[in-house]
Amino acid sequence: MSIKNLIASINDQLTPTERCIAEAVLEDPMLLTFGTVSALADRVGTSRASIVRFASKLGIEGYSELQKIARAEVSEQFSSPSQRVRHQNETVAPTQSKMEGAMHAAFSALDDACLTAMATPIATAPNVWILSGETSMAGAHALNSGLSMIRPSVRLVQEHSTGRDLCGALKGDVAVVFDFARYRRNAVIAARTLCDLGVTIVAITDGPLSPLSSLTQLRCELAVPAVGPFDSSIPAVIAAELLVARVVQELGDASLERIDRLEVFWQATGMFLNYSPPPSRGA
User: Which of 57, 77, 97 is at the close of a domain?
Assistant: First the structure.
């Protein structure tokens, strides 16, 4: 398991000092890869003993073993041409450039393996519950709209009625939870409660230190840039739309039959305006 995933699996057990160590390791992998235990301790402002205890909490025997794992990960990362380009182009960029970077990072994070792992339980679960914080709500709405048209028993949970909505959740259900820093208390507590009830959590979040990361390995981690005063909704929407497309593949004919039935009801109820553009004046 990668250091990032090791940290994610125990993030709710970390002390404040250990969280600072984890943040430093994740922010600057080179510090761990090539630095000494003293250098990492000085960077965080803690003791060598705290660094060793942090490694032990990750289930790793000592700092040298932790460093060995980190070096292997960095070596693998820089063997990828796309990763080399990404790291060479790290600059302070205007908003448009940051958004473009976040979009490319989202497509990279949402690779085939990640999408399949998340989509498979969504396709087969008796019920799918969707929860979200405020800044990621656009992604939650996109997912709810898409999934509800290709499979039954999909519910977008509203913050004001979380308890009432989720009291029917059962073991074997799936909850897809969107949340990014600053993490929404309601979404996180609801996700923890559902996890304790045996509901599978699929998390769309922003990193291994997210409170959602310790609940599941079925997650994608997205970079969410600021756009003006607020965080961008685009990465969450990208995740939602790619996930819907993959669930369609997982469901196969069942999703197509549901879409066909939906189209019959749309036609019968006159859902869409029967409209043809007027001819141009030169015609």
Answer: 77
